């Protein structure tokens, strides 16, 4: 078994892990940047919300649900023309970032909406009674109060993206998933597949532990 892991393969493991980290980090950051305002808008436009707009809320909610309910492997294939338009290619690490980001944004938005629902509505009403603007309510009440939930949402999103990034390897997306497919499956090396799974487990555990630590620190403030 150990003879399988030549220096070249170990170097490939390190490169693939780095590609996975890059994919998860970029798609997580961009997905969060898009999903945060979307989640806030979903919360604000709900019935009895600060900017109540049932029609807009319904349209946004339906769009978010449509993307979220699409299996990621289908999303990968469906947006290949769009991915090629943005990156010039449909394979590789940067190409995989595009569908990963599209999958992350609505997922994160729903988690943000849920986190904002956990904020005491009395605080929002008190801010409104003092004449606070919508911007002030969002920046000085909602986001500070929901900060632990937002960090927890980001953690969950990054963990999910790790699994998605491995799936992207099925169509040449790079990373550990691609390594597992090309060496573990196509070359009949089950030990490589097992090693990929173990590395992904350790990576996910590290992300989850860091996120849990951050949530605990924020919750105690």
How would you describe this structure to a colleague?
- The protein is mostly helical and 221 residues long.
- It has one domain: MetI-like fold (Orthogonal Bundle), CATH 1.10.3720.10.
- The chain has nine helices and no strands.
- The mean pLDDT is 90.
Give a nutshell description of this structure:
This protein is mainly alpha-helical and 221 residues long. It has helices at residues 7-44, 54-69, 72-78, 80-87, 93-117, 121-129, 134-168, 175-185, 190-219. Helix 1 runs parallel beside helix 5 (93-117) and helix 8 runs antiparallel to helix 9 (190-219).
Q: Can you tell me the CATH superfamily?
A: MetI-like
Q: Strand pairing plus helix content: what structural class?
A: mainly alpha
Report the major sheet: none
Q: What's the rounded overall pLDDT mean?
A: 90
Instruction: List how many beta strands DSSP finds.
Output: 0
Number of domains: 1
Uncertain segments = none
Total number of helices? 9
Rg, please? 20 Å
H/E element order: HHHHHHHHH
Strand content: under 5%
Identify the overall geometry: elongated
* End-to-end separation: 50 Å
Helix content, binned percent: over 70%
Give the CATH class.
Mainly Alpha
**How does CATH name the architecture?**
Orthogonal Bundle
């Amino acid at each position: 078994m150990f003879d399988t892991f030549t220096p070249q393969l170990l170097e490939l493991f390190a490169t693939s892990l780095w590609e996975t980290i890059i994919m998860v980090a970029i798609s997580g950051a961009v997905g969060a940047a898009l999903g945060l305002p979307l989640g806030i808008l979903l919360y604000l436009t709900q019935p009895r919300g600060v900017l109540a707009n049932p029609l807009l809320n319904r349209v946004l909610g339906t769009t978010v649900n449509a993307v979220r309910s699409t299996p990621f492997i289908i999303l990968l294939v469906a947006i290949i023309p769009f991915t090629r338009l943005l990156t010039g290619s449909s394979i590789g690490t940067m190409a995989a970032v595009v569908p990963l980001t599209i999958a992350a944004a609505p997922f994160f938005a729903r988690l943000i909406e849920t986190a904002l629902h956990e904020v005491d509505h009395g605080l929002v009403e008190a801010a409104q009674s003092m004449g606070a603007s919508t911007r002030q309510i969002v920046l000085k009440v909602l986001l500070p109060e929901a900060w632990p939930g937002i960090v927890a949402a980001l953690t969950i999103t990054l963990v999910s993206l790790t699994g998605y990034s491995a799936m992207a390897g099925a169509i040449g997306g790079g990373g550990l998933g691609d390594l597992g497919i090309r060496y573990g499956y196509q070359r009949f090396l089950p030990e490589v597949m097992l090693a990929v799974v173990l590395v992904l487990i350790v990576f996910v555990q590290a992300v989850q532990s860091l996120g849990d630590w951050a949530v605990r620190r924020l919750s105690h403030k």
